[in-house]
């Protein structure tokens, strides 16, 4: 009896060791939101997980990507009931909390309401060992701080912080300072479950690609950012709303992949972009449209088109950006300047989340 228990413990430890390295690499993901049939093209390379807001898993991924369910909020309670049925006997590793709680058109909840819901809908899963995110906040640190207080009072579990971020292609430094502020404020691992460039900032395609890779590479390397999902799972002329730039798209209108998707799938360093990058090409080539390359599987890749006009009124720092700037300034006034140093995690050996 004793012997077999020991064996079991050893086997279990071996299993843990076998699982951890794979889990540690789970970083880049998809905020899924387009024709399910387009899925298999993207479920490759460095992409390892996805979420789908209130909706269910995409069967076309054939289990290649890890599915992360989300409790969107009361507006989609019936979809959540369906997710709960799916999770019976098939517990996920992670669940995401409510979607953009401080935005009127989104989950739109007070911290108190959200904490009660978290306790009712998510805490039972925390007790079964599932790791649970905070509500997926956009800009309002006070909202999340209040939520954490309410949650503590009720005794609920928040394993990691989930946030969304949109800005301009010039905002790399702002993104870093924001993520650092969130980390210092909440002291938990972070997932960025949506990020991208705003439509109103009106950048050209090359600027978006460059930002996409710089931001993704940085988020992938920072030790406490565990996962990130660029909001690009839509076809270029049919973005999910008018806030995010349509050029963030991973798909052409016919469902073929855009260059930006190939970078996301295959490039880990901005200095060594994919073979499809036109940064390495002479400038005469950069302007050429319809230039094709081959990806690892031998598929033809066409440079992303850039034929849409910039908006009439360019907005560089919108209300969310201003609120984040203020939160960073407030944090620095209280705690001293945010360090320029990055807490990098080159060997990816932390499998916390
Ligand atoms: C799909 O659309 C892209 C971009 O417009 C184009 O380059 C490509 O040739 C199209 N592919 C097919 C199979 O029509």
From TrEMBL:
Region (Disordered) location: 275-313, 332-353
A biological-process GO annotation: fungal-type cell wall polysaccharide metabolic process
Domain Asl1-like glycosyl hydrolase catalytic: 29-264
A GO cellular-component term linked to this record: fungal-type cell wall
Signal peptide: 1-24
InterPro entries referenced in this protein's UniProt entry, alphabetically: ASL1 (IPR053183), Asl1_glyco_hydro_catalytic (IPR024655), GH (IPR017853)
Compositional bias per record (Acidic residues), positions renumbered to this chain: 297-309, 339-353
Keyword Lyase appears in the UniProt entry: no
One Pfam short name: Glyco_hydro_cc
Keywords: Signal
Keyword Manganese tagged: no
Protein's name in the database: Asl1-like glycosyl hydrolase catalytic domain-containing protein
The organism of origin for this protein: Kalmanozyma brasiliensis (strain GHG001) (Yeast)
């Amino acid at each position: 009896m004793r012997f077999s228990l020991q064996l079991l413990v050893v086997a279990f430890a071996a299993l843990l060791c076998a699982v951890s390295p794979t889990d540690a690499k789970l970083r880049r993901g998809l905020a899924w939101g387009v024709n399910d049939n387009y899925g298999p093209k993207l479920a490759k390379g460095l992409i390892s997980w996805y979420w789908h807001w209130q909706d269910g898993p995409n069967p076309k991924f054939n289990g290649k990507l890890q599915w992360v369910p989300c409790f969107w909020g009361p507006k989609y309670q019936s979809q959540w009931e369906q997710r709960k049925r799916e999770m019976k006997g098939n517990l996920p590793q992670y669940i995401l909390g409510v979607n953009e709680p401080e935005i009127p058109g989104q989950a739109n909840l007070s911290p108190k309401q959200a904490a009660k819901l978290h306790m009712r809908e998510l805490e039972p899963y925390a007790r079964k060992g599932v790791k649970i995110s905070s509500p997926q906040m956009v800009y309002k640190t006070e909202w999340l701080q209040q939520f954490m207080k309410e949650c503590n009072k009720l005794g609920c579990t928040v394993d990691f912080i989930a946030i969304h971020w949109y800005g301009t292609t010039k905002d790399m430094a702002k993104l870093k300072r924001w993520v650092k502020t969130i980390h210092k404020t909440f002291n938990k691992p972070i997932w960025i479950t949506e990020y991208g460039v705003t439509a109103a900032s009106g950048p050209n395609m090359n600027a978006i690609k460059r930002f996409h890779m710089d931001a993704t590479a940085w988020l992938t390397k920072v030790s406490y950012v565990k996962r990130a999902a660029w909001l690009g799972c839509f076809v270029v002329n049919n973005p999910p709303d008018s806030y995010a730039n349509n050029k963030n798209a991973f798909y052409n209108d016919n469902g073929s992949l855009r260059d930006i998707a190939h970078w996301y799938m295959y490039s880990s360093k901005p200095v060594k972009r994919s073979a499809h990058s036109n940064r390495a090409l002479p400038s005469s080539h950069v302007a050429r449209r319809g230039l094709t390359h081959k990806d690892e599987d031998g598929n033809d890749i066409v440079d992303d088109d850039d034929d849409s006009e910039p908006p009439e009124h360019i907005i560089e720092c919108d209300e969310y950006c201003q609120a984040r700037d203020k939160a960073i300034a407030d944090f620095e006034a209280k705690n001293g300047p945010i360090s320029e140093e990055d807490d990098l995690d080159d060997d990816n050996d932390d499998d916390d989340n």
